[in-house]
Design brief:
The protein starts with a strand and ends with a strand. Strand 4 and strand 5 (52-58) form a beta hairpin. It is mainly beta and 124 residues long. Helix content is 0%, strand content 73%. The protein has strands at residues 2-9, 14-26, 30-37, 42-48, 52-58, 62-68, 73-79, 82-98, 101-109, 116-123. It is globular.
């Protein structure tokens, strides 16, 4: 089913995606959101659940993020030069269903940096 989806960088409040996307149910309580981005020659696939998420950013380089509440965020980064695994500190992950809308909020920081990276996904 097509739904309007927004992906917002929290630090800048910039919408990196703001258009129709495929949204499907996954299991009993999850959603899969497929955001095609032809301008950047790629796509993002978010599978969100109450306590966990799986995010695949599929561009020239691909990143898979595995998010589980109360655990470090795990990343697998694939480039033409090989694969690299990393962990980051999960600051916040929430999946909120309210008034026929769904929001997923993700904030994390990489140990070598003081920067907090955050996104909000909205299914309108």
């Amino acid at each position: 089913m097509k739904r309007h989806v927004q992906l917002i960088e929290l630090a800048s409040n910039k919408k990196t995606f703001d258009k129709e996307a495929e949204v499907h149910a996954v299991g009993k309580a999850g959603l899969e959101i497929i955001m095609e981005n032809p301008e950047a020659a790629g796509r993002e696939i978010w599978k969100i659940f109450e306590d966990s998420a799986l995010i695949d950013s599929l561009y020239e380089n691909s990143i898979r993020m595995i998010i589980r509440k109360d655990h470090p965020l795990r990343m697998l980064i694939r480039t033409e030069f090989g694969d690299m695994e990393m962990e980051a500190d999960l600051i916040r992950y929430e999946c909120i269903h309210q008034n026929h809308q769904t929001r997923a909020i993700l904030e994390y920081s990489i140990s070598e940096s003081d920067e907090i990276i955050g996104f909000e996904l909205k299914i309108l």
